[in-house]
Amino acid sequence: MIGEHFDTRTRINMKLALDRICRDRPAGEDHGFRRSVAENIIRAALAGRTGIGQLVDAGERAVIKTRSEGHPAQ
Q: Taking the model in full, what pTM does it have?
């Protein structure tokens, strides 16, 4: 699915953003947490925000949203 929508550079930026968001967080290896972050990153990329900074920001917004919904500390 992702390969169909994004060029190589964007896919690399997306992976780097996901890894950057998740690497130092206690829940960083949790599938649900990673999925939430990845979905936000994908939405940003689909909207044309494909720079690494933009994608990291999108991932961070997912973390903030997860916290505000009362999920365990990220």
A: 0.84
